[in-house]
UniProtKB/TrEMBL annotation:
Belongs to the class I-like SAM-binding methyltransferase superfamily. C5-methyltransferase family. Gene3D superfamilies: 3.90.120.30, Vaccinia Virus protein VP39. This is Cytosine-specific methyltransferase. Its EC number is 2.1.1.37.
Amino acid sequence: MDTYELIDLALTRYSPKEVAFALGVDPKTVRRWHLRETEPKPYIADAIRQRLLPLGEAPTGEAAFRFIDLFAGIGGIRLPFEKLGGRCVFTSEWDAYARKTYAANFHDGPEHSFAGDITAVHEDDVPDHDVLLAGFPCQPFSIAGVSKKNALGRPHGFADKTQGTLFFDVARIIAAKRPKAFLLENVKNLVSHDKGRTFSTIVDVLQNELGYRVHTKVINGKHFVPQHRERIMIVGFREDVPFDWADLNLPALEDGPKLDSILHREDGTEPPEWHCLEGAKGRVSDKYVLSDKLWAYLQNYAAKHREKGNGFGFGLVTKKDVARTLSARYYKDGSEILVSRGARKNPRRLTPRECARLMGYGDTFRIPVSDTRAYKQFGNSVVVPVIASVARLMVPLLDQIGTEAAPARKVA
Ligand SMILES: C[S@@+](CC[C@H](N)C(=O)[O-])C[C@H]1O[C@@H](n2cnc3c(N)ncnc32)[C@H](O)[C@@H]1O
């Protein structure tokens, strides 16, 4: 690819302003390059590769298996399946900023398509695949309506039970494409929601209406990262395979890592990341330290709730601790995970890079969005090594499932 083509490619992912910012030039210059009016300096090609495009090249050749990535976010579920030899052939994510992070980290060839709103995609337009991945957003309230409908004696079937929920979109794609396997991920609360009825409906649809062998398990991210984060994994196979959660290789909870493994070292041994770290030692920038006003507010709020006997309040941690669950609202006040800087100093928030590490993302993962967006994206994401442990159980079993899919079941 020559430099002009690299510029064009970068412009399919970023605006001229963003490309200009990353390359340290004026947006007008980028437009002129794009129109072939002026010639970029030779170093621009490398700068684009390093700063704006995913590392490596788009995959080529035969893949071990093909998968699709629904409600993809920033691709946390995709990462381990790709590492195990899978080729992503379809992604759906409607948030423009999540797409930006995704595009900065994954290279896709011509056989891959990227859709926005999955509810607007017809299942026949989804490419054939072996594995369906979906960290679907939790909207169980609509599913909860099922029991009422049943009580009223209304007809119910998979479509009727779940229509209007995003789980329906997952189910209708499974029904039409009949992948060999799927992995669905959600918050632990899904299991107990509406006295367990929501979860039973989901499992019932997957098992009895779509005919998959379903295995479920709540896994705590704390096995792998210094964060308490419990999530339900719903694994399904189209045929009988010897899948057993007992084979899951989870490090002992008590041996799990502590926060010192993810906090910036601040000793000059880390490459400085543009705005998070400062000076030769890579000290965490003061902008992450809580203001006096916010810190006073959080302490008063916690004290009030303590008086009432509630456990609400901030979570102050040191490097020897394990953090609470990082949420998508962390950008607001950071209260669930505040890093202590000693008794006399205001604590600080985690930086986006520390949040990435807390979710098990490697340091090569690119964060091309603002801090606010990055906090939301990591707070919504998965603990990557948890997914990796499940993927390692699933992938070897794919070969035991016939390639000829059973006839598609049509949504009623
Ligand atoms: C819980 S997050 C999944 C995060 C993902 N597993 C990751 O590792 O980053 C759910 C994602 O679904 C996306 N989403 C919600 N409704 C959608 C829709 N109708 N079509 C496509 N994406 C949707 C949200 O923007 C969000 O990024």
